[in-house]
Design a protein that fits this description.
The chain is 82% helix and 0% strand. The chain has 281 residues and is an all-alpha fold.
């Protein structure tokens, strides 16, 4: 894989984990996800003046992606409300690459090499190992958190495939991403006004700057990820984006005071090994 693409994906993965941690640390995560989507939409609209509109051929993909993202944002907030960040984030992100790889073979006819498969499997195994012990007391998984995290993973795989294909037809990956985020912002604004009106207004009053900054960062990180899917196989990019669990592990332990257990350390080593293998592809 091209070194520039590799490094940019890793940096964006770490940034993605950082802003996701804010969903757990600040306010009600279900409301926070809505705020971030709205903030991302606000940040995206001026970007469109510079990128222009994506090509018409990509519009059907954009429509499907907006629908998938609605489910993603909704279930992500509920998952963070139900379980530990150090459990939910790795589980939600770690199960997605294998689903994405299978979908890429069926829909895009991209088949990872044996070395590529090895890197994906090792990385995913590490991510799931990090998540294998849930809750702050070392007990079994919080069942509801697991269900919501896996549902989020399915949405992640879905929009990764749709956006990877759509961006290749859009003429510009950044125009595609900006238009997608603008549409997501309006969609989540309508959702928030219908389902979360009172709590959303209360949260926005003191945290609008957090929503705008976090949404802008999300737009940047995802834009780079979508661009990477036009430069490299979707499955490999999707797997590399989950390296953010390493940053999530540190954030959860240092800032959120979540326990750093042996399985999570072993999983981190496996993630690093998977990254090395993918870099060699």
């Amino acid at each position: 894989m091209d070194p520039l693409v590799f490094v940019l994906i890793l940096l964006c993965a770490a940034g993605h984990a950082a802003w996701n941690s804010l969903l757990k640390a600040r306010i009600d995560p279900a409301v926070a996800t809505t705020m971030l989507a709205i903030g991302g939409g606000m940040a995206a609209m001026p970007v469109l003046f510079f990128t222009g509109m994506p090509a018409e051929a990509s519009r059907p993909f954009l429509l499907v992606s907006v629908l998938i993202h609605l489910f993603y944002w909704t279930f992500l907030g509920k998952a963070y409300a139900a379980g530990d960040f150090g459990q939910v984030y790795p589980l939600a992100r770690g199960t997605a690459p294998l689903i994405t790889a299978a979908g890429a073979m069926l829909l895009v006819h991209e088949y990872p090499s044996p070395l590529g498969w090895l890197g994906i499997v090792v990385l995913v195994a590490g991510v799931l190992t990090i998540a294998c012990r849930g809750g702050s007391c070392g007990g079994p998984f919080n069942r509801m958190a697991v269900v919501l995290a896996v549902t989020t993973a399915l949405a992640t795989a879905g929009y990764s495939l749709v956006d990877g294909m759509g961006a290749r037809l859009a003429g510009s990956a950044f125009a595609y991403t900006a238009f997608l985020y603008a549409c997501n912002g309006w969609t989540l604004l309508a959702y928030g006004l219908i389902r979360q009106r009172r709590s959303l207004f209360e949260a926005v009053e003191g945290n609008w700057h957090f929503a705008l900054a976090g949404g802008a960062l999300s737009l940047l990180f995802y834009g780079v990820g979508v661009w990477a899917m036009t430069q490299a196989p979707i499955a490999l990019v999707a797997a590399l984006r989950e390296s953010g669990v390493l940053a999530a592990l540190v954030i959860g332990a240092v800032f959120l005071k979540e326990p750093l257990r042996v399985p999570r350390v072993v999983g981190a080593v496996a993630v690093c090994a998977g990254l090395v293998v993918i870099r060699l592809v």
